[in-house]
Amino acid sequence: MNGISTLTQKGQVAIPKSIRDYFHLKPHDKVYFEVQDEKIVATPAPTISEMFGLFKTSRIITRKEMKKAIREAVLEKFRRKDKLNYNKK
Questions:
Q1: CATH code matching the domain that covers 1-45, chosen among 3.40.50.1820, 3.40.50.300, 2.10.260.10, 1.20.1080.10
Q2: What is the CA radius of gyration of the chain?
């Protein structure tokens, strides 16, 4: 599946409808971008619901605390991955 889109002056790009449909992307969904072998690769970012159950704790936490912990863990994972990719250059 392929598609072409134009980059705007603000650096925005529209994902072609066929690709949005294939990945079930909806407005406000997050997309993760990374560079792999001189290519830009976009991947649907996992939702909070998809991340549920990845962390174990001995205490009861609120949903707000859970969301914060998941966000921080996902961001840290992407930062480490970006740092590894940057160091390979």
A1: 2.10.260.10
A2: 16
